[in-house]
Amino acid sequence: MTWIDLLDLVQSVFDGVMFGTTYALIGIGFTLIFGVMHKINLSYAAASIGAAYLSLLVVQIAPTPLVYLSAALLGGVLGALVYLVCFRFLPLNQPLATLMSTVGMLLLLEEAIVHATAGMPQNYPSLFAGVVFDVGPFMVRGDLLFVFGLGCAAMVGLKLMLEKTRLGLATRAVAQQSVAARLCGMSVSTTNATTFIIAGFLGGTAGAMTGAAIGVLSPLLTLPMTIKGLVVTVIGGLGSIPGAIIAGLVVGGVENLFQFLRGVSERDIYVMLMLFAFLVFRPGGLFAAPGGRD
Amino acid sequence: MDFYLGLLQVIGVHSLLGLSAWCVLHTGQVSLAQGGFFAIGAYGAGMLTTMFGWPLGWALLVAALLAGAVAVAVGFPALRVKGLMLVVATTAFAEIVRLVFFNLSWKVKTPQGLIGPDGGLGFGGIRYFQANAWSSVQVLLLIWGLVALVMLLLWSLDRTRIGTLWRAVGEDEVAAQSAGINLTAAKVSAFGIGGAIAGLAGGLFSHNTTHIEHGNFTILLATFAIAYPILGGLKSLAGTLVAVVFIQGVLVEGLRFLGDWRSLLFGALILLVMLVRPGGVLGAPLRWPSFKRHAAASTTDLMISAERTRHA
To answer: Is residue B310 in a domain?
Structure first.
């Protein structure tokens, strides 16, 4: 391996880590919902991409930052919708019921996207697309840097929300012990619903970031995003937000590393093998949630 | 007529796939790996008959055993985790299998020319039925004969000690373990038998369609596999069959007149079934949908559900 190859390798890993913020956000969404409800919402990544698609409705009349903002807000709306349809009225003691209902939602969202756009990829606006910064021998793409910054901002916002507001306190209380939270007078279903909305904000942002970084939105994104989000959630440790962030960046980096070394058709094999290694040697993930009293 | 024969063949293959998921779900594990075992069976049996000239019976048997062996090998590490972690682990496994076949290019010279899997282009020319002049009815009889055999096997298995162990583990792992049941053996055996059935289904699938490619074996297929028993209800084998007929016969074929809207309706109908019959179509006696009873949920219900969520 020559010096130039090594530079290319570091460059592609670096790009991957920056794109990894989208995986991190999707992973955080899965982890948040798992934290409060102990349920998987398999339609989450599809709803995130769907929110980005919906934000295309205002792309003609609004400047690009407003498109991203509307993607986030629409993500929240979709999150509330998913909660109402897939969780609110289902018996929560049957884990398979909500699993299937979210699968139904995933299929429905994906087909709605295909139906609305006739399956054609749609261009998505990006900011700073042509800007390139030179850092020593490396270059930093402006649009990726923006995506990275937006992802970090969303994470900081989430952290502040969880730690400084009453809503965040309620979310953490329900995640820790839902029965005790209920005994203290909190409404578990309201907290669950707001958690879905907050996760939806993050998902909408992640959908917009994906569109901005790739340049197009396609219905083919939903399944890979779902799988990558789940991988990130598990590697980071279920219910752990810092874990999801680090795992997201790691998965992004590893993905690009193997894309550079082995080509695009083989890269995901290695990501999945990494996941398997984690399951065998560290099944709790990077930061498993500390075992509670029970 | 040929159309209906073809439809019945598809329903038969998918019934086997659903039954394979039923085994695993019976022990309380949600596995999305069935699509991977299905792919192993499909490629394995196809390669044995076309590239090495094996007879179909032996090829199906070896493919099923191979898929079962892989399932046992994967089961040991994968079944250490459960719930969401298992869903993700099995998803990862199915994706690895799919991507391996996506990258597999291996052709051999046969009297019919170069034949074998060709990476992204897929694996075509699995024409065993055509080469041996099987009629559609004969193929259909073979498929449904195997479905009947597998159902009989599972039905009798369910009535032996093994079935009791599986159900005990599925109902409550902690209670089963404290009764001295070996959890790993129960789960891995269910996983292995399920894998073998999926492999058998895959072998039939590849010979029936004559051309397979990695896109046949995505997570969507695995989702269908677990959707059949869940929608049908885990209590009965017949439920799985009913769900396959409902989905493949009514939803996929019967609603063709709706055109594009059909696939939209598909997800919505799964949602609807889960809202109205959360335990599956045949899973529980008929009762009011839960949103009507929601207001009446008692404190005991709450405590039980809280207890369950903690263990989930």
So the answer is: no
Using an 8 Å Cβ cutoff, are B43 and B126 in contact?
Answer: no
**For A85-118, how does the pLDDT look when each residue is reduced to its tens digit (9 = 90+)?**
999 888 877 778 888 889 889 989 998 999 888 8
Distances from the Cα of B18 to the Cαs of B109, B151, B226, B243, in angstroms? 36, 11, 6, 9
Task: Look at chain B and report how many structural domains it folds into.
Answer: 1
- Split at pLDDT 50, 70, 90, the class of A290 is low
Give Cα separations from B201 to A126, A149, B56, B204 (angstroms). Answer: 46, 48, 13, 5
- Could you tell me how many CB contacts below 8 A there are between chain A and chain B? 159
Give the Cα separation of B45 and B202 in Å (integer): 8
Q: A230 near B88, Cβ under 8 Å? A: yes
Residues of A in contact with B309 (CB under 8 A): 37-39, 92-93, 178
Indicate which CATH number applies to the domain containing B191.
1.10.3470
Q: Hey, what amino acid is at B82?
A: K
Q: Which residues pair with A140 in a beta bridge?
A: A133
Model pLDDT for residues B15-51, shown as the tens digit of each residue:
999 999 999 998 888 899 999 999 999 999 999 999 8
Residue type, B171: E
Question: What single-letter amino acid sits at B137?
Answer: V
Q: CB B99 to CB A97 under 8 A? A: no
Question: What is the spatial distance between Cα B255 and Cα A222, in angstroms, rounded to a whole number?
Answer: 25
- The answer, for B114 touching chain A at a CB cutoff of 8 Å, is no
What residues does each domain of chain A span? 17-221
Query: CA A292 from chain center: how many Å?
Result: 26
> Does this complex have an ipTM over 0.90?
no
* Site of tokens 């991507």: B99
| Chosen from B22, B88, B219, B307 to mutate, greatest number of chain A CBs within 10 A | B88
